């Protein structure tokens, strides 16, 4: 019996790209258009003012060589023409009349295409574009060839053969703010939809202790403006910019938000760190009448049964003493904190992910208790757990189900 091998990154990217291009091509055919999907990045960039291949490359995530090839085909199709720019140093490109007509025809199609992308991301429960953007940024910083060489060197040093099952564990916990942005679990899409439905208007949402913007980005789909506030400059730097979002570095107790402006105030996995009386005073100051305040947390991660016993020992006993006292508030879902607002019942929700070993241990690397273990010089605790979990996991590229209960305290100001 043949065992299907785990797919490589390039294999999956090519396959997904083929599926996307095939679907786009079918739509163009149904519209009666003879059109190549590869023209879209060029046309969108030119509609924003790009006049050279270099301009288009800077505005897209397509290589200069691929852009040049597309432009050559577009010249042959009569959509663009090449021309000498006034500075005499660059060869420019300009849309023809036919090209301009095509752009106007395509603009409504691009809008529904992006709506379809949002729907796909909600269906799979993962921010695909953000993750792929993060991958591109990481590979720009350190190329894949260098990463392959590092993996080869590690295996050579360990004296183990090159195989998909040999997984280094010594660097799992060597991460920073980018890891927080990359590995923190995303809240279910219906959470932001539910909160927006309670707010008295869609003018402004303020997400306090926003970290790298996991919830902030979701709220932005429902509000004219969303402000993410966090005291950590590193977290703000790793928050990906989006339309209708502003990120501000500030504390929960001194918010740079105008009086009586916010329809929704959220604090996700953060309220246990606040001086809550001072925070609540700020909430009342910035809130409009009948605004909603939501303190959100997710509880202890739950793994599949064959992994759970080892994880529980790690969480409760091995790193348990390194958790700050505030962690107990998170474990209880904020049930015992002071909350001086008229409360609104919260529906049950859950975060669910299918993660491979790399993603799971990447998430654990963001825990404050793990950082404290490292600072105490007890890294052998972390490495022993990573090694044990690697053995229990099997093929590290295999995905396992991970879940967290979502808890909320909801109030009306």
Uncertain runs are 160-172
Shape: globular
Share of helical residues: 40-55%
**Major sheet description:** 8 strands, mixed
Radius of gyration over C-alpha positions, nearest whole angstrom = 25 Å
Helix/strand-derived category reads alpha/beta
Number of strands: 10
Number of helices: 17
Distance between the termini: 63 Å
What proportion strand?
A: 15-25%
Order of helices and strands: HHHHEEHHHHHEHEHEEHEHHEEHHHE
- Return the average pLDDT rounded to an integer: 85
What does this structure look like?
This protein is α/β, with parallel strands linked by helices. 47% of the residues lie in helices and 16% in strands. The protein has 17 helices and 10 strands. The chain has helices spanning 9-30, 40-47, 53-59, 64-76, 97-124, 128-141, 144-158, 177-183, 189-198, 214-219, 233-237, 276-286, 305-318, 327-331, 357-364, 368-375, 379-393, and strands spanning 80-84, 91-95, 204-208, 225-230, 245-249, 262-268, 287-298, 342-344, 349-355, 400-412. Helix 8 crosses helix 15 (357-364).
